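As agreed, record passed on underneath.
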Amino acid sequence: MTGSILSKRIKQIYQVYVPAFMFCLFLAGAMFTVKTAFLPEKALAAEQSAAIKEESSSGSSASGTAASSKKIRMSAKKLTLVQLQQKKLKLVNSKGKKVKWRSSDKKVATVSAKGLVLAVGEGSCTITARCNKKNYTCRIKVKPLALSASEVTLVRGRQKVLSLNNDKAKPVWESSDTRVATVNESGCVQALSPGECSVTASWKELVLICQVKVLPISVENLATSYPATAASQGRIVLAGSSSMDFWNSAPQAFAPFEVINTAIAGTRVVQWLDWYKELIVPYKPSAVVLYVGSNDIANGTSTTGKDNAANTILLLKRIKATLKNIPIYYIGVCPCWSRQGGWEEIRISNQLVQTFCNNTADLYYIGIGSAFMSADGTPNRANYLSDQLHPSARGYAIWKKMVARPVKKEVRARAKAAAKASTKKSSSK
């Protein structure tokens, strides 16, 4: 009963109010049509123009906001420069505007009318650029120009490259005593004989000095010159007798790899059976290159070729047992005119050592003898110094090709393989 009454009431409301609502909508539409029909054309155009202007104004406002975001600013808030170094500063978004530059302390740094800063002396200052009545600043810190070392101790025959802490600097290098040490245009100091001297680097109005001390070659002095620190580990170690000792261009031949040359002129294999523990092992080298045995055989009056080979093989075994999984190279003894009497013993020794190396992992034999020979099978005098014993510059060029190149190739390949294995191990975790 109640449901029937409610249903009847809803039907009555629908019949009364829906027609009324529809009539109101009809009247509103009619009024809009009449207004549009009788509105003057100018008034209508004005309304349309106002609408377009309002839309345009909205777009311009957005554009203005984007433009205003390009604020004027200094290209850098702070800089650290080395004495006599230059750096260009810019006032970003100031194109077409007048900019005035100044330095708070010209003894520290100056600035040109175009924002080029020149570091003058140690200290700090502020570079200011004024534009549109506003100041924009950059804080400058200047470090003194300096040599990579103020003191150097070298063993006779060794090198040290000096440099300035400004890559743009082109200094003039000079040694105060070229009998003790020389220096080339790249700052490479070559120790020649025991003594002391100073090496200067002159650039513009500055002169920097490095004190150089050259020691006679010995096991103790080599250990002093090449301290076994973390920084010295992983280099290529060169060891042996005079031909290796006198290879002054070895650092350039093995570049970019660094070398430690612990060779001592006049030494024999039997001495290196002990010295390897002090002059090779502590550096944990990436490779070892040996040239030793020539003094043992000499002119055939000392050790026989067979005995020399036995000692050499023992040395190689000891180094290999201590320094595992690194390449060890042995350069075969090279025949020369000054030791003509030992040629046959040299041949025997080289053959035995080569056979051992060929059958042992991580050991490599480098035979350079044939490259030093003339067409008739005798030593080419041009490949030796006047003593007809030690390699000449031409001879060491052969060493670079036949010794340094394969060593570098192997070290590079092993380093690449180790890096790949390390990456694979890390990714598997």
User: Anything to note?
Assistant: The two ends are 79 Å apart (CA to CA). The longest helix spans residues 2-38.
